[in-house]
Every structure is written in structure tokens, then in C-alpha cells.
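Protein modeling request. Please complete all fields; requests missing the sequence field cannot be processed.
Requester role: graduate student
Desired output: 3D structure, C-alpha cell encoding
Chains: 1
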Amino acid sequence: AEQDVWNVFLYDHAKSVLFDHELFSNKKERSLIPIPRLMDNRSNVNLVDPPEHRKRRALLSQAFTPRSLKEWEPRIQNIVDELVTDIESTEAVDIVQKMAIPLPVIVIADLLGVPSKDREQIKTWSDILFLPYNKESYDDIGQQKAQAMKEFYEYLYPIVLEKRMNPVDDIISDLTKAELDGEQLTDAEVVMSSIGLLGAGNETTTTLISNIFYSMLFDQPGIYQELRSDLSLVPKMIEEVLRFRFPATMDRKVEQDTNIFGHEMKKGQVIVAWI
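Delivered output (275 residues):
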């Protein structure tokens, strides 16, 4: 109540919140996604509704074709294999430090096409950009985010310029070539898209991998042995972890007064769908 926020938990309610953009809009001044809103451009798919959302998503999706996904698979497999090899010789392992944290940032840095030597710096920027806000240190966190965004932007901009002139097989190159209605993304928009992809893929995937192991160890002890004896169960297990210990929630703004869920919701309030 203090924050003027509603929460919905039932499947049908969550689905209504996410799909009825006339009643629950993604255009909002404050958001659970704690990344600074420095640039409102076509690279930002987070704070818009259809049909604009579909248009922006179509532009970005040109970097994620089935062909490119298939080609990336062995690259990702090699990274996983290296991390697992490092783990194999140890008696006990901190799976968060050794797998959940490094895997996403290494994969995304590789696919985007940024130098591997800069992974730790990229991880630092990304972590700052996705720090949750809190009342006590709101301004301080805001300043940290602005500084990280500035440094990250200045780091990526020359990389984008280089790849536009000399494209190679990576996502930044693909984004410089992507077209919609005869228009390409500007260099600034490619930079912001890259920051968004690095941040979003990094945080959520680290949380998912951590949650998978937590679920196997504490929620369902013994399930790990079952999975080892039948690897075909692994995809179902991942889906179930996504359902049970989801790595993110989605928020929308109430667009008009409504009692669709049996309570009086007022225009301008925030509603969170627990997915």
C-alpha cells in the first residue's frame, strides 16, 4: 500500500495484466527494471506497448535468426565445457561463482563480439545497472547507475562504429545491418541494444542457473540422481524451475480505474504480475 502497488499471482490474472495493454500499459515512469532510462529510442523494447513493441522487437530479432542460433550452439557448448572442466577436479564447488555468474557474461560477450579480456569490466557495469533501488540510498544508486551507463556507452560506441564498417559474425554486427521499413538502427541505438542484451541476459540467466541447483539440493533432494540417469528430463526440469523459482517479475501501469480482479484499482497505480 505504501508504494501504491498491486500484486497478482493467479495464472489468468497475470496473463490479463501482461496481454491487456489498454488496461495495463508498459509505458510507465517507474519500473521494476532498475536500468536508467537515459534514451527513449527504438532499441528499448521494455517500456512500450503494441504495435510499437512488435515493431521494435522485429528489428532486434533480426540478430536472432534460427540460423544464427544454430551456429552459436557449438560456441556456447565450448564455453560450458571449459567451465565444467575447471570444476571437475575439485571436491566441492561454489556453483554460483564457478558456473552461474561466469557463464552468461562469457556467452553474451562472445556473441555480441566484445573483447573477452573485458568480461570482468562488462560484468561490473552490468551488475551496477541492474542493482535494485532502495529508499535509503536511492540517489546514490542512481548516480552509480548513471556513471556505469556513461562508461559502458563510451566503451561500446567505438566497437559499434568498427563493426558497422567491418561486420563480422556477431550480434553487434547483425544489429548494425538490421532493417525495418528501410531504416537501420543508429549507432547510439545499437549501443543501447547491446547494453540491454548484456544486462538482461546476464542477470536473469545467473539467477536461473543458481535456482536450478538450489531446487535440486533443497526443494527436491534426490532429483539430481534421477536426472543423471535420464538426461531427457533436463528440459522439463528447467521449465519447472522457471515456473517455481522464476528469475523475474513483470510490472505494468494501471491505465484506467478498474475492478477487473474484484478490487478497486486506480489509474496510475503499478501492478506486478508474478510470473
